[in-house]
Amino acid sequence: MPAPRAREQPRVPGERRPLLPGGVRGPRRWRRAAGAAVLLVEMLERAAFFGITANLVLYLNSTNFNWAGEQASRAALVFLGASYLLAPVGGWLADVYLGRYRAVALSLLLYLVASGLLPATAFPDGRSSFCGEMPESPLGPACPSSDCRRASPSPYCAPVLYAGLLLLALAASSVRSNLTSFGADQVMDLGRDATRRFFNWFYWSINLGAVLSLLVVAFIQQNISFLLGYSIPVGCVGLAFFIFLFATPVFVTKPPMGSQVSSMLKLALQNCCPQLWQRHLARDHQGARLLPDQRSPQPGASPQEDIANFQVLVKILPVMVTLVPYWMVYFQMQSTYVLQGLHLHIPNIFPANPSNISMALRAQGSSYTIPEAWLLLANVVVVLILVPLKDRLIDPLLLRCKLLPSALQKMALGMFFGFTSVIVAGVLEMERLHYIHHNQTVSQQIGEVLYNAAPLSIWWQIPQYLLIGISEIFASIPGLEFAYSEAPRSMQGAIMGIFFCLSGVGSLLGSSLVALLSLPGGWLHCPEDFGNINNCRMDLYFFLLAGIQAVTALLFVWIAGRYERVSQGPASHSCFSRDRG
């Protein structure tokens, strides 16, 4: 007996359904084909993104540009921060002007053009065309003492590279905020369970792209050629753009519904600052009145819908904001976890001779060095393994037993695993410092820097990477599902953008905390180490993060509990309850 068909969503004016015909089972087949196309596009785009970021510092620090280490690190941080903080811009443009389909297509096109700058500057003729000739290093007097420091010269080709990186960040952020909800639109007709499963596999696709990029692209960039290594991300974006256009006939595309962000801001101003609002009304009697019924008819939501959606937004934002400390912990795996790993003994898996085993990341003769970016694979692999297991086995079992937790309950569980990850990192750091303080160290050279590492193996970091990977499954994936399903329809793009933007805020807050603690007298102030952290107390930094995470997790549980109690009432405004009745 054939399964009953899912009830289709009411068609929005201007919405285009798939052009390809189908029989009784046709719609389900085309919905799945459209979802699969979105997942493939996301995998290729993430492979390109990680291929660009994995060795960006190394690329700018190479002889191609000769940027100082702090200059290259700053450029990488600006690019990563902008790729998250600009996400609401892409979502707003899709809601108001472009629609999600055109927003994704145009963003991929911009992505393709901007990503071509990196391989174009990877060979001498291209660099001279875009940047001019590299200036000669100025000759100056010798340093009078061994501890004097020269001022870093102005970085070569900085305006061109920063402009290209910011365009890349805008394109990547727009794809990130719109492709997620566009993919969920493709499977919404199949029911809420299909949407939940789509987000599971969407996140799995992100990590599959990361694995391919870290294993292949990062290795080629570090050991063979930056020209070839940065040409591969361009090819990935080009293929993603082709697949997206090729799959157009099976896509459900919806017109821009208009964004109520400006209406939300006016309502917030009216409620929070009534005196300022009255002054605003006095200046503009004709156009400023948002709520009165005498307002001339305009397209978009009615004043009553504005108020209802504003109430939904007020409920959603506290939940998303209390997730920010989790992102502070999550992004440690790309910063302090890696720094900690560089100060643990990294075995050489390509030894040229047994006497050279302590030179952990430098291979001799015809061997290759181990890319530092491979240290992130532990997190990625656990996501790749656990997402299919969760989707195929754990979730169906819990669903049959009626024990499947809500998205908010999963997010709370993810925050707990993040807390345990940073606690484990702090305990490992205490043990590492115990060896350091007893002068039990091994020397290992990474790039041009010699590190005095503890004799503890880097494999002791696996538990903290596993725990942060598990936390990602329970916090980030349900977070995406929550942001999409609970947002008003006309603000889904903007809300998804805000979700990604807040994760970027968490990353920047973590970096700011590190900068604050690196000031003289701080736990992370290590003036004598020249890049090492053996005189720092990074263990105390990890325990501080754990404390912040624990306090905000309790606050999150309280806010989430209130949200679920209110949402169970008849006034729930999630897109599922609104559309499915």
UniProtKB/TrEMBL annotation:
GO terms for molecular function: symporter activity. One of its GO terms (biological process) is protein transport. CDD domains: MFS_SLC15A3_4. Keywords: Endosome, Glycoprotein, Immunity, Innate immunity, Lysosome, Membrane, Peptide transport, Protein transport, Symport, Transmembrane, Transmembrane helix, Transport. GO terms for cellular component: endosome membrane; lysosomal membrane. It catalyses: glycylglycylglycine(out) + n H(+)(out) = glycylglycylglycine(in) + n H(+)(in); N-acetyl-D-muramoyl-L-alanyl-D-isoglutamine(out) + n H(+)(out) = N-acetyl-D-muramoyl-L-alanyl-D-isoglutamine(in) + n H(+)(in); carnosine(out) + n H(+)(out) = carnosine(in) + n H(+)(in); L-histidine(out) + n H(+)(out) = L-histidine(in) + n H(+)(in). Residues 1-18 have a biased composition (Basic and acidic residues). Residues 1-23 are annotated as: Disordered. Gene3D superfamilies: MFS general substrate transporter like domains (1.20.1250.20). Its main location: membrane. The chain crosses the membrane at residues 34-60, 72-94, 101-120, 160-179, 200-221, 227-252, 312-330, 373-390, 411-428, 465-484, 496-520, 540-560. It is found in: Endosome membrane; Lysosome membrane. Pfam families: PTR2. It is a multi-pass membrane protein. InterPro entries: MFS_trans_sf, POT_fam. Belongs to the major facilitator superfamily. Proton-dependent oligopeptide transporter (POT/PTR) (TC 2.A.17) family. Proton-coupled amino-acid transporter that transports free histidine and certain di- and tripeptides, and is involved in innate immune response. Also able to transport carnosine. Involved in the detection of microbial pathogens by toll-like receptors (TLRs) and NOD-like receptors (NLRs), probably by mediating transport of bacterial peptidoglycans across the endolysosomal membrane: catalyzes the transport of certain bacterial peptidoglycans, such as muramyl dipeptide (MDP), the NOD2 ligand. This is Solute carrier family 15 member 3. The lineage of its organism: Eukaryota, Metazoa, Chordata, Craniata, Vertebrata.
